[in-house]
Amino acid sequence: MLPALLLPVFMAVSNAFIVNVATPSIQKGLGASFADVQFILTGYTLTFAVLLIIGARLGDRFGRRRMLFIGVALFTIASLLCGLSAHVTMLIASRVLQGVGAALLMPQVLSLIQANYTLERRGAIFGMYGATQGIAATAGQIIGGLLLRMNLWDLDWRAVFLISVLLGALILALIPFIPESGSSDRAGLDWMGAALAAAGLLMLVYPLVQGQREGWPAGLVVSLLLSAPVLVLFAWYERRLLRRGRLPFMNIDLFRHKVFTFGILVVLLLMSSQGAFFLVSAYLLQLGLHFSALQAGLVIGSMGMGYFLASLFSSRVAAKLGAHVLTVGSILTTAGYLLLSWAVRTTGVSSDIGVWIPALAVLGIGQGFVAAPLTNIVLAKIRTTDIGSASGVMTTSIQIASTIGIALIGIVWLSALGAHTGSVSAYPDAFNICLYVLAAATALILPLALMLAGRNGARRS
Questions:
Q1: Residue 293 falls within a domain, yes or no?
Q2: Mean per-residue pLDDT for 413-422?
Q3: Where are the transmembrane segments (predicted)?
Q4: Alpha helices in 117-217, H assignment, sequence order
């Protein structure tokens, strides 16, 4: 039963990293623009984010194993469509469908673990769940690069999607061995809240991606400006549902807890910078330094290994430092970006980038020390009855942050490349500017981490 629960997690998480390393090849193969590539990435993450909580509610109502099967089936079909896409519009639409499948399957895994394993075994199972995510993130870049290097049957970038078809078929064969479970709760689904959230986020993300390409026409500027009131309307509507005793799409009252608000801000800063970094690093390595996709995946893999190891040992560090593990992680993350910037300036356009590896390892370790213990530190201060809602909001925030980070970094990246047009070091110089922006963003995690640690200490005393 356990492989049937962990393999879907590996498939959904690794997919984002496998596709990321293939973005330059996808752009070349389909004759797409950089904005199109951003939509290929954000179409998946935005759909995933908006439908994640709805997916959990559907599992409670109609059966978690059933929704897991439907989610994996949709993801598998969408992966096939991605691999068969003849133009970028079809690929973006297929990626959106992949996001729907991921949103249906991911929440069922945690619920099925809760339902099928005793309290004594859950700690080990959840540890394996976290390790699976770490392995998927680390291996995803390398798998993507390896598939492009092998270029089986001249599939090129299409192989990074078609591999999920094979994995999906295996998972579908295993799912019937999982016992079914559900919930007696038959509360109505908040489709209006989901629609308002989707509309507000789309009105925010679409102009950020397309604005640079189209010269910021009035329509995109208006959309960007209107996204704020639409999201405010969403918050008002959700609070109105709570006051009426109905179940909202998102429990807005959670943000009255300062620990939770600080935690969400850390998630937004960390994950937006991470999503942005993976995108621009793929372009620097493959287009700027002419690395193969496999070589690029192996380089970024050193960061993933640091992230994985820090995640494994973060509980031990947290046992000694408490919430200050986040303080250490935030300092190392910012230092990692600055060290990498120094390394990039040192190597320039040279492909001899061994000096990058320690900086990438520091960056990965820093991110691991923030990401791994954050959920536990924040949820420990939330009432037991609200933990389900809080964890759902945090998971959704990760996908939203990645979407926004990819959208924003595109503006910085294209502007920096444009400013260095004609320079032999255009790509390294543009990448350095992006690193300064990411270092500045993650530096804001430090005061938040200190406030979280202070409140954690105050609660203990």
A1: yes
A2: 87
A3: 37-56, 68-90, 96-113, 125-147, 159-179, 191-209, 215-238, 259-285, 291-313, 325-344, 356-379, 400-418, 430-453
A4: 119-150, 159-174, 191-214
Q: Distance between CA 176 and CA 68 in Å, rounded?
A: 10
Quote the tokens at residue 338. 């600055």
Least confident range of 86-90, 91-95, 246-250, 379-383: 379-383
Query: Which is nearest to 49 in space by CA: 401, 365, 324?
Result: 401
Say if residue 151 is in the same domain as residue 4: yes
pLDDT in tens, 190-240: 788 888 988 888 888 888 877 877 778 899 899 999 999 999 999 999 899
Please answer whether residues 227 and 211 qualify as being in contact, where contact means their C-beta atoms are separated by less than 8 angstroms.
no
**CA–CA distance, 201 with 324 (Å, rounded to integer):** 33
Tell me what pLDDT residue 185 has: 59
Give 119-127's long-range contacts (Cβ < 8 A, gap of 24+): 125/2
Alpha carbon 53 to its chain's center: 15
CB 366 within 8 A of CB 329: yes
Task: Return the amino acid letter for 114.
Answer: Q
CA distance 437 to 215: 22
As a whole number, the mean pLDDT across the chain is 86
In angstroms, the CA 222 to CA 217 distance is 9
Selection from 124, 125, 101 nearest residue 113 by Cα: 125
| Residues across the chain | 461
| Furthest C-alpha separation in the chain | 64
Angle at CA of residue 402, ends 401 and 404, nearest 5°:
65
Residue 191 to residue 54: CA distance in whole angstroms: 8
Question: Does 123 have pLDDT greater than 70?
Answer: no
Would you call 114 helix, strand, or coil by DSSP? Answer: helix
- CA-based nearest residue to 82, from 15, 6, 172: 15
The per-residue pLDDT for range 310-324, each reduced to its tens digit, is: 877 887 888 888 888
**CA 145 to CA 47: how far, in whole Å?**
25
Residue 42 and residue 170: Cα distance in Å, rounded? 27
Shared domain check, 425 and 278? yes
Distance of alpha carbon 266 from alpha carbon 270, whole angstroms: 6
Q: Is residue 427 part of a domain?
A: yes
Give the domain range for residue 155: 1-177
Q: Which residues contact 67 (CB under 8 A, 6 or more apart)?
A: 55, 58, 59, 104, 105, 108
